[in-house]
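Q: Could you fold this chain for me?
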Amino acid sequence: MTTQQLVLSLVLATMVFSVALELRVEDFRRVVRTPWAVLCGLIPQFILLPIGTWGATLLLDLPPNIEAAMILVAACPGGSLSNVVTHFGHGNTALSVSVSAVASIIALVATPFNFSWMIAANPATASWLRELAIDASGIWLSLVLLLAIPMTLGLLFSHKLPRLTERIRKPLGNLSLLALLLFIVAGLIKERQLLTLGLLPLLLIVVLHNASGLFFGWLTSVAMHVSTRDRRAVMIEGGMQNSGLALGIIAVQFHSDLGMVTLASLWGIWHIVSGMSLAYYWRSKDARSAH
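A: Sure. Below is the predicted structure, expressed as C-alpha coordinates.
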Protein backbone atom coordinates (compact mmCIF):
# COMPACT_ATOMS: atom_id res chain seq x y z
CA MET A 1 0.00 0.00 0.00
CA THR A 2 1.41 3.39 -1.01
CA THR A 3 1.62 6.37 1.33
CA GLN A 4 -1.26 8.02 -0.54
CA GLN A 5 -3.42 4.93 -0.11
CA LEU A 6 -2.53 4.66 3.58
CA VAL A 7 -3.38 8.31 4.24
CA LEU A 8 -6.74 8.01 2.47
CA SER A 9 -7.56 4.82 4.37
CA LEU A 10 -6.79 6.52 7.70
CA VAL A 11 -8.89 9.55 6.78
CA LEU A 12 -11.87 7.39 5.82
CA ALA A 13 -11.55 5.21 8.92
CA THR A 14 -11.52 8.38 11.04
CA MET A 15 -14.65 9.66 9.28
CA VAL A 16 -16.50 6.41 9.97
CA PHE A 17 -15.29 6.48 13.59
CA SER A 18 -16.55 10.05 14.02
CA VAL A 19 -19.94 9.12 12.51
CA ALA A 20 -20.20 6.18 14.94
CA LEU A 21 -19.68 8.62 17.82
CA GLU A 22 -22.99 10.21 16.78
CA LEU A 23 -24.92 6.96 17.12
CA ARG A 24 -26.72 5.91 20.29
CA VAL A 25 -28.77 2.93 21.36
CA GLU A 26 -31.83 5.14 20.88
CA ASP A 27 -31.01 5.38 17.16
CA PHE A 28 -31.39 1.63 16.81
CA ARG A 29 -34.57 1.65 18.89
CA ARG A 30 -35.90 4.24 16.48
CA VAL A 31 -35.27 1.78 13.65
CA VAL A 32 -37.52 -0.74 15.38
CA ARG A 33 -40.24 1.87 15.90
CA THR A 34 -40.18 3.16 12.30
CA PRO A 35 -39.24 0.15 10.12
CA TRP A 36 -41.37 1.32 7.18
CA ALA A 37 -39.61 4.67 6.87
CA VAL A 38 -36.17 3.08 7.30
CA LEU A 39 -36.97 0.51 4.61
CA CYS A 40 -38.01 3.39 2.37
CA GLY A 41 -34.53 4.89 2.82
CA LEU A 42 -32.75 1.61 2.07
CA ILE A 43 -34.54 0.65 -1.15
CA PRO A 44 -33.06 3.45 -3.32
CA GLN A 45 -29.53 2.76 -2.02
CA PHE A 46 -29.34 -0.99 -2.32
CA ILE A 47 -31.88 -1.85 -5.03
CA LEU A 48 -32.96 0.97 -7.34
CA LEU A 49 -29.67 2.87 -7.82
CA PRO A 50 -27.55 -0.29 -8.33
CA ILE A 51 -30.00 -1.78 -10.82
CA GLY A 52 -30.44 1.55 -12.59
CA THR A 53 -26.66 2.03 -12.78
CA TRP A 54 -26.11 -1.47 -14.14
CA GLY A 55 -28.74 -0.83 -16.83
CA ALA A 56 -27.10 2.48 -17.74
CA THR A 57 -23.66 0.88 -18.13
CA LEU A 58 -25.14 -1.67 -20.53
CA LEU A 59 -26.70 1.07 -22.66
CA LEU A 60 -23.76 3.51 -22.60
CA ASP A 61 -20.55 2.81 -24.48
CA LEU A 62 -18.11 4.01 -21.79
CA PRO A 63 -14.58 2.87 -20.91
CA PRO A 64 -14.70 -0.22 -18.64
CA ASN A 65 -12.98 1.55 -15.72
CA ILE A 66 -15.55 4.38 -15.80
CA GLU A 67 -18.42 1.90 -15.84
CA ALA A 68 -16.76 -0.01 -12.98
CA ALA A 69 -16.46 3.22 -10.98
CA MET A 70 -20.15 4.00 -11.54
CA ILE A 71 -21.07 0.51 -10.39
CA LEU A 72 -18.82 0.76 -7.31
CA VAL A 73 -20.23 4.13 -6.24
CA ALA A 74 -23.78 2.83 -6.69
CA ALA A 75 -22.95 -0.24 -4.60
CA CYS A 76 -21.65 1.82 -1.66
CA PRO A 77 -23.95 2.85 1.21
CA GLY A 78 -25.11 6.40 1.79
CA GLY A 79 -22.48 8.97 2.70
CA SER A 80 -21.84 10.10 6.27
CA LEU A 81 -22.61 13.70 5.26
CA SER A 82 -26.24 12.82 4.62
CA ASN A 83 -27.22 13.38 8.27
CA VAL A 84 -25.80 16.91 8.27
CA VAL A 85 -27.39 17.81 4.93
CA THR A 86 -30.75 16.36 5.99
CA HIS A 87 -30.67 18.40 9.18
CA PHE A 88 -29.83 21.58 7.24
CA GLY A 89 -32.70 20.92 4.84
CA HIS A 90 -35.27 20.52 7.67
CA GLY A 91 -35.63 16.81 6.93
CA ASN A 92 -36.08 14.04 9.49
CA THR A 93 -32.56 13.85 10.91
CA ALA A 94 -33.44 10.96 13.24
CA LEU A 95 -34.60 8.91 10.26
CA SER A 96 -31.45 9.85 8.34
CA VAL A 97 -29.24 8.66 11.22
CA SER A 98 -31.24 5.44 11.52
CA VAL A 99 -30.99 4.71 7.79
CA SER A 100 -27.25 5.47 7.84
CA ALA A 101 -26.70 3.12 10.78
CA VAL A 102 -28.60 0.23 9.19
CA ALA A 103 -27.09 0.89 5.74
CA SER A 104 -23.57 0.73 7.18
CA ILE A 105 -24.27 -2.75 8.54
CA ILE A 106 -26.10 -3.98 5.44
CA ALA A 107 -23.25 -2.68 3.26
CA LEU A 108 -20.91 -5.33 4.66
CA VAL A 109 -22.92 -7.88 2.67
CA ALA A 110 -24.79 -5.83 0.08
CA THR A 111 -21.87 -3.79 -1.31
CA PRO A 112 -19.69 -6.78 -2.33
CA PHE A 113 -22.78 -8.66 -3.54
CA ASN A 114 -24.11 -5.79 -5.68
CA PHE A 115 -20.69 -4.93 -7.05
CA SER A 116 -19.91 -8.55 -7.93
CA TRP A 117 -23.11 -9.32 -9.82
CA MET A 118 -23.19 -5.98 -11.66
CA ILE A 119 -19.56 -6.30 -12.75
CA ALA A 120 -20.03 -9.92 -13.83
CA ALA A 121 -23.27 -9.14 -15.71
CA ASN A 122 -21.59 -6.43 -17.79
CA PRO A 123 -19.32 -7.99 -20.46
CA ALA A 124 -17.08 -4.91 -20.69
CA THR A 125 -16.35 -4.65 -16.97
CA ALA A 126 -16.14 -8.42 -16.48
CA SER A 127 -13.38 -8.76 -19.08
CA TRP A 128 -11.59 -5.69 -17.70
CA LEU A 129 -11.48 -7.15 -14.19
CA ARG A 130 -10.13 -10.42 -15.54
CA GLU A 131 -7.34 -8.50 -17.26
CA LEU A 132 -6.46 -6.83 -13.97
CA ALA A 133 -6.69 -10.19 -12.16
CA ILE A 134 -8.81 -8.58 -9.42
CA ASP A 135 -11.12 -10.65 -7.26
CA ALA A 136 -14.27 -8.62 -6.59
CA SER A 137 -14.68 -10.42 -3.26
CA GLY A 138 -11.58 -8.57 -2.06
CA ILE A 139 -13.88 -5.62 -1.39
CA TRP A 140 -14.84 -7.47 1.78
CA LEU A 141 -11.41 -6.70 3.20
CA SER A 142 -11.77 -3.01 2.42
CA LEU A 143 -15.20 -2.88 4.05
CA VAL A 144 -13.93 -4.58 7.20
CA LEU A 145 -10.95 -2.23 7.50
CA LEU A 146 -12.67 0.98 6.41
CA LEU A 147 -16.18 0.45 7.76
CA ALA A 148 -16.76 -2.40 10.21
CA ILE A 149 -13.77 -1.90 12.53
CA PRO A 150 -13.98 1.94 12.81
CA MET A 151 -17.77 1.72 13.27
CA THR A 152 -17.44 -0.83 16.07
CA LEU A 153 -14.68 1.15 17.80
CA GLY A 154 -16.72 4.35 17.57
CA LEU A 155 -19.79 2.73 19.11
CA LEU A 156 -17.72 1.24 21.94
CA PHE A 157 -15.92 4.55 22.53
CA SER A 158 -19.14 6.56 22.76
CA HIS A 159 -20.66 3.97 25.12
CA LYS A 160 -17.66 3.69 27.45
CA LEU A 161 -16.47 7.31 27.38
CA PRO A 162 -19.54 9.52 26.85
CA ARG A 163 -18.01 12.73 28.25
CA LEU A 164 -14.87 12.51 26.14
CA THR A 165 -17.01 11.59 23.14
CA GLU A 166 -19.08 14.75 23.56
CA ARG A 167 -15.92 16.89 23.55
CA ILE A 168 -14.23 15.35 20.52
CA ARG A 169 -17.24 14.39 18.40
CA LYS A 170 -17.75 17.63 16.48
CA PRO A 171 -14.05 18.65 16.10
CA LEU A 172 -13.12 15.15 14.92
CA GLY A 173 -15.98 15.07 12.43
CA ASN A 174 -15.06 18.49 11.02
CA LEU A 175 -11.37 17.57 10.85
CA SER A 176 -11.97 14.27 9.03
CA LEU A 177 -14.36 15.93 6.56
CA LEU A 178 -11.84 18.70 5.86
CA ALA A 179 -9.09 16.11 5.41
CA LEU A 180 -11.19 14.17 2.87
CA LEU A 181 -12.03 17.32 0.89
CA LEU A 182 -8.35 18.34 0.90
CA PHE A 183 -7.39 14.86 -0.28
CA ILE A 184 -9.87 15.05 -3.17
CA VAL A 185 -8.75 18.57 -4.14
CA ALA A 186 -5.07 17.58 -3.88
CA GLY A 187 -5.71 14.60 -6.15
CA LEU A 188 -7.43 16.79 -8.72
CA ILE A 189 -4.59 19.33 -8.56
CA LYS A 190 -2.05 16.54 -8.99
CA GLU A 191 -3.85 15.47 -12.14
CA ARG A 192 -4.69 19.05 -13.19
CA GLN A 193 -3.61 18.34 -16.74
CA LEU A 194 -6.81 16.31 -16.96
CA LEU A 195 -8.98 19.22 -15.80
CA THR A 196 -9.88 20.33 -19.29
CA LEU A 197 -13.06 20.56 -21.28
CA GLY A 198 -12.57 16.87 -21.93
CA LEU A 199 -13.59 16.24 -18.33
CA LEU A 200 -17.04 17.72 -18.88
CA PRO A 201 -18.58 14.47 -20.21
CA LEU A 202 -17.41 12.67 -17.07
CA LEU A 203 -18.84 15.43 -14.90
CA LEU A 204 -22.13 15.17 -16.80
CA ILE A 205 -22.21 11.42 -16.05
CA VAL A 206 -21.65 12.15 -12.35
CA VAL A 207 -24.39 14.82 -12.29
CA LEU A 208 -26.93 12.54 -14.01
CA HIS A 209 -25.92 9.55 -11.87
CA ASN A 210 -26.34 11.58 -8.68
CA ALA A 211 -29.65 12.99 -9.91
CA SER A 212 -30.92 9.47 -10.49
CA GLY A 213 -30.14 8.60 -6.85
CA LEU A 214 -32.11 11.62 -5.66
CA PHE A 215 -34.96 10.75 -8.04
CA PHE A 216 -35.11 7.14 -6.84
CA GLY A 217 -35.31 8.44 -3.27
CA TRP A 218 -38.17 10.74 -4.21
CA LEU A 219 -39.95 7.99 -6.17
CA THR A 220 -39.73 5.50 -3.30
CA SER A 221 -40.89 7.97 -0.67
CA VAL A 222 -43.87 9.03 -2.80
CA ALA A 223 -44.80 5.41 -3.51
CA MET A 224 -44.60 4.55 0.20
CA HIS A 225 -46.52 7.69 1.26
CA VAL A 226 -44.06 8.95 3.88
CA SER A 227 -44.20 12.49 5.30
CA THR A 228 -42.47 15.50 3.74
CA ARG A 229 -39.67 15.50 6.34
CA ASP A 230 -39.13 11.77 5.85
CA ARG A 231 -39.11 12.22 2.06
CA ARG A 232 -36.32 14.77 2.33
CA ALA A 233 -34.24 12.37 4.42
CA VAL A 234 -34.84 9.50 1.99
CA MET A 235 -33.89 11.61 -1.03
CA ILE A 236 -30.64 12.73 0.55
CA GLU A 237 -29.82 9.17 1.63
CA GLY A 238 -30.46 8.00 -1.93
CA GLY A 239 -28.33 10.68 -3.56
CA MET A 240 -25.35 10.99 -1.21
CA GLN A 241 -23.44 7.76 -1.77
CA ASN A 242 -20.24 7.19 0.19
CA SER A 243 -17.75 8.22 -2.48
CA GLY A 244 -15.04 8.32 0.20
CA LEU A 245 -15.49 4.61 0.80
CA ALA A 246 -15.44 4.06 -2.97
CA LEU A 247 -12.13 5.97 -3.18
CA GLY A 248 -10.69 3.80 -0.42
CA ILE A 249 -11.72 0.61 -2.21
CA ILE A 250 -10.31 1.95 -5.49
CA ALA A 251 -7.00 2.71 -3.76
CA VAL A 252 -6.72 -0.72 -2.15
CA GLN A 253 -8.28 -2.98 -4.79
CA PHE A 254 -7.80 -1.14 -8.09
CA HIS A 255 -4.35 0.38 -7.59
CA SER A 256 -5.78 3.92 -7.72
CA ASP A 257 -6.92 3.58 -11.33
CA LEU A 258 -7.00 7.15 -12.64
CA GLY A 259 -10.39 6.98 -14.36
CA MET A 260 -12.05 5.42 -11.32
CA VAL A 261 -10.43 7.92 -8.93
CA THR A 262 -11.51 10.86 -11.11
CA LEU A 263 -15.14 9.75 -11.27
CA ALA A 264 -15.36 8.98 -7.54
CA SER A 265 -13.68 12.31 -6.68
CA LEU A 266 -16.07 14.25 -8.91
CA TRP A 267 -18.97 12.44 -7.24
CA GLY A 268 -17.54 13.31 -3.82
CA ILE A 269 -17.54 17.01 -4.70
CA TRP A 270 -20.78 17.10 -6.69
CA HIS A 271 -23.00 15.26 -4.21
CA ILE A 272 -22.14 17.90 -1.61
CA VAL A 273 -23.09 20.64 -4.09
CA SER A 274 -26.35 18.96 -5.09
CA GLY A 275 -27.26 17.92 -1.54
CA MET A 276 -26.66 21.35 -0.03
CA SER A 277 -28.42 23.06 -2.95
CA LEU A 278 -31.47 20.87 -2.43
CA ALA A 279 -31.38 21.48 1.32
CA TYR A 280 -31.15 25.23 0.78
CA TYR A 281 -34.14 25.06 -1.60
CA TRP A 282 -36.16 23.23 1.04
CA ARG A 283 -35.22 25.78 3.71
CA SER A 284 -36.23 28.65 1.41
CA LYS A 285 -39.49 26.89 0.61
CA ASP A 286 -40.23 26.45 4.32
CA ALA A 287 -39.43 30.09 4.98
CA ARG A 288 -41.82 31.23 2.24
CA SER A 289 -44.55 28.94 3.59
CA ALA A 290 -44.12 30.38 7.08
CA HIS A 291 -45.04 33.87 5.86
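A (continued): The longest helix spans residues 258-290.
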